[in-house]
Amino acid sequence: MPSPTSKPRGILPAALFAVVTAVVVVLGIWQPFEPGGGDLEIAGGGDPVRGEALFAESCAGCHGEGGVGGGGGPSLVDSPIDEETATRTVLAGRGTMPAGILGGTDAVDVGSYVVQISGAVEGAVPPVAEEPPLGPAGEVQLTGPRLWGIFVSLAQPAGATWTIWLDGGAQDALRVGEIPAGQTTFADPDLGIGTIIDQYNRVIIGEQLQDFALATDELSEARITALKALIIGEGNPPGANSLVSVAGEQFAVFSDHTRFLVEARDEANLANIRFHSEHLVNIALGAPIADVDQNGEPTNPGDGVGLLGQDGREGYLPQIDAAAGVGTIAPLAELVPAVEATVADARVCGDIASVEAAGPCVNAIEARSAKLDQLWGQVPDAARASAVLALERP
Ligand code: HEC
Asked: Helix, strand, or coil here: 69?
């Protein structure tokens, strides 16, 4: 097993990274109150004179002399704050401000100094800060050809050395690694010892199994089945006959026939224009196949499932979307209508009367084909990125 700090091998697509980053940014404004300050008497009673000296030493570097700002931290002057909040901020940190710069009575004293410079009126009720809602706490992405690996990313650094367990199923929870205090990621591309997708159904993270910090929801049977179909497929090697790979083969057949159609136009071969147009329609829609060119014989170089399907029968693209969970395969939102547009053009070309008349419909199909290829190219990664489980606080 690689060390817990081993890098994810390109398993975190840019889109997911962006989401995680956004989560980190959102959570930057929320900080848990660190234990250790818990038994400290915070409410009132700090010594602001001592606090002033401490502030000059430990805080002015970022907040400026007298707290007027300028060193990377915000001005603390003229934004009223109460002593408890100020002290807790020092103990727990905030955003890029590290936790625990000062502790114990030092933190309380500096807190009371901050109250003074903040312009809070003594005895006034401090404005009640609206509690920001807690965002997602992180994610577990299932990785590798069989989804046996995991990549854990936390929205906030681990509060202590946190162990990662696989849980659920018949066995006892299985320890698979740990995230050192202050770190946010763990990667093991192939756990090789029991898998969340086979014997277990959720990930638990924390100091203790019984009193954990974060966990994913249990992965349902339906979701496991869908993810397996989408990414792993039935046999060996894994992925070879997954939905993504079989759809990719059909997509390649579709691309080939776009090319054949363009060649037929360039050769001014009307029969072939009509023939390859029929094929485009049938590869996209699958059974029942249509005799678009009306030569008395419907033909289909595709596998009959079709990229889109028809008559209430789902083709590969809707199957992929369903297996990934609605809305998670972003390129499909553009790809599906683009394939539909090519089918509409191919219906026209398939029954066209002359090479000249076929110009516009062939041109439209040709013009769209690079975009189609590009969109399809994004689907496999997007499908993998859908194998993500949110980490929640208990
Ligand atoms: C490394 C730079 C740095 C140091 C050192 C630092 N701070 Fe900060 N502090 C910040 C930043 C940045 C913020 C804003 C964080 C945010 O809201 O995302 C902040 C926020 C605060 C706030 C909250 C302000 C508000 O409007 O709610 C208080 C109070 C505070 N700091 C007090 C202190 C005190 C007291 C010390 C010294 C013990 C200190 N800081 C040391 C960078 C620092």
From this structure: coil
